[in-house]
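Collaborator request, handled under Task 6.
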Amino acid sequence: MTAVDFTSMSGLELMRWAQRDRPADTSSIGRLIGITMDEVEKGYAAMSIRTQPDFSNPLGQVHGGIAATLLDSVMACAVHTTLPAGARYTTLELKVNYIRSVALDAGRITTEGRVIHVGRTVATADEGKAFDESGKLVAHATTTCMIFLPR
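Structure tokens returned to the collaborator:
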């Protein structure tokens, strides 16, 4: 495997690399729980995950943390697509509204995130939405990210 210089790639280039060329055995939260990067454009990202028994909460439904992780990831990646090479970010705030529970055998949960604003130090995204396989909204979210531009 050839080493990739992430600092020379714009955020959009990095997200497209992650979508197409990232080795399957690369450690990440996405690999751990099975997130798939489905689509990425400047200011937009879409991801999905297949439900599984390991996602169970004490009531036998998909734990809300799975939706929160997906929504945090998809909105932060949407923000990342707008950043220049070498820039980094971290989530400052995540607000999730849960609409309905998700069964462990529900199939695929899809998410999408869109950027609202990107400034020099802070970015916001919303329209973080999670849908079950039948297209019903299961959760929606907003985020604020801190941006660290390269020196």
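The cover message to the collaborator said: "The chain has one domain: 6-148. The chain has a mean pLDDT of 91. Please let us know whether this matches your experimental observations."
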